[in-house]
Amino acid sequence: MGADIVIGLQWGDEAKGRFVDYISENYDVIVRFQGGANAGHTVIVQDKKYIFHLLPSGLIRKDKIGIIGAGVLIDPDILLEEISFIEKELGPLEGRFFIDERANIVLPYHKEEDFLEESSKKGVGSTRKGIAYAYRDLYMRMGIRLSDLKDVNWLSDRLKTAAEFNNQIIGARYGHVPFDWKVMRDELLIFFGQIRPYVADTVALFHSYLEENKKILFEGAQGTMLDIFFGTYPFVTSSHTISSGAPVGSGIPPTCIGRIYGVFKAYTTRVGKGPFPTELTGEEGKYIREKGNEYGATTGRPRRCGWLDLPVLRYSAFVNGVTDLVMTKLDVLSGLEKIKVAVHYKLDGKKLRFPPTSILDYERLEPHYIEMEGFELEGNERSFQELPENAKKYVNFIEEELKIPVKYISVGPRRDQLIVR
Fold first, then answer.
1. Exposed, middle or buried by CB within 10 Å (0-12, 13-18, 19+), for 410?
2. Virtual CA dihedral for 366, 344, 7, 38, nearest 10 degrees?
3. Cα angle for residues 56, 323, 260 (degrees, 5° grid)
4. What is the pLDDT of residue 414?
5. Phi-psi sector, 145: left (phi>0), alpha (psi -120 to 50), beta
């Protein structure tokens, strides 16, 4: 087993990026395997903030290899922007950063349709990055892959067909003027010339890395409850955010997977529309939002905040096969006199320990809470023993309920503000 996975257990924004940055010290290769520029992973190193949308967070460490797998959607503008930023800060990426040539590209008409759909208030609260529409083209076999950019004639044929289809949709639905496929083709060829040194068959690279006994870490984007199959559909993202999505989105065999780190906040948040059983709409929710700086790294939208939801965590831990729990942002709860945890739901009088399967059932859910005493953190705690007694009780209660060890606890955003048990 040469590969491990970091997965979000809630609705995304669980601070996976900061944990990947921390734990990547123990790995040789860091991999993004799904999603696109709708992800926002924030890492703070020596008080400098890095926000990644496409590049793996582990690239901050100069001795690591970063890979974007076949399951990731490439936004040309954002990719070039991030490469430029990282190379300016940390030096050249050539030789330690690779993009699978099977990866599909987000094109202007995808983002325009996403914008128009959301603006019409018919959408589900997306980030307007064109993700759903690019994945739609992929599954309709008319997506444009990086490998298509190698041959101008092949690209022209495929792009002309894809543009005609997408132009018909946004034209008929919104009266939008057609996108010129030739302009897009020329821009894509320029783009390919800029990223050519990074394009590779990453499946072959994974094979060689495993033969060399290199350690691989997969970095999930979004969270389990946004999975296209197992999330709160239709208020989800358009990819497989769960651990089994890593082999699918990278081409690495599932037999190579070892540990699965499940990252969750000490409370719960979600962005955009969709059910949220433990949401706090009053002063406590505002307190958590402001103290936790709960604003989207990709969109800047304020996140909805609420108490920790154990049915969600039980479900997510099972679906992902979590071996180790990672609790982030425990410090945000510091200062609250009382803290609540939803231990189960009631639905039509029936007790539920997992979330319901139907979106309609969420409207009738009644979370059942237990109340725990609050605590005060200093932020300089570096061992579990240094935590206040009530904070330890909070962590231990969650661990006992989920029957999975909480191995890591963050007490602040910096790389060194992490307790390892």
1. buried
2. 0
3. 20
4. 86
5. beta
Which residue's structure tokens are 């984007």? 221
CA distance 9 to 324: 12
d(CA 420, CA 293): 24
Contact between 248 and 228 under an 8 Å Cβ cutoff? The reply is no
**According to the model, what pLDDT value does residue 297 have?**
67
> d(Cα 402, Cα 380) in Å, to the nearest integer?
27
pTM for this entry: 0.94
According to DSSP, the residues that pair with 419 across neighbouring strands are: 409
Q: 41 an active-site residue?
A: yes
CA distance from start to end of the chain: 23
Residue 214 backbone class (left: φ over 0; alpha: ψ -120 to 50; beta: rest): beta
234 CB neighbour count, 10 Å cutoff: 11
DSSP notation for 112-149: HHHHHHHHTT-S----SSSHHHHHHHHHTT-PPBGGGG
Between CA 361 and CA 134, with CA 319 as vertex, the angle to 5 degrees is 80
The pLDDT score that the predictor gives to residue 224 is 98
**Of 13, 137, 148, 227, catalytic:** 13
Please name each of the domains of the chain with its CATH number. Answer: 3-101+198-260 (3.40.440.10), 104-194 (1.10.300.10), 264-420 (3.90.170.10)
- The answer to whether 325 and 262 are in contact (CB under 8 A) is yes
Q: Are 360 and 319 in contact (CB under 8 A)?
A: no
Of 21, 41, 100, 148, catalytic? 41
**Rounded to an integer, what is the distance from CA 340 to the centroid of its chain?**
26
- Grouped pLDDT means (10 residues each) for the chain, 421 residues: 95 91 94 91 74 89 95 97 92 95 98 89 76 96 98 98 96 95 98 97 97 97 97 96 97 96 97 93 92 81 94 98 98 95 96 96 96 93 95 97 97 91 92
Rg (CA), the chain: 22
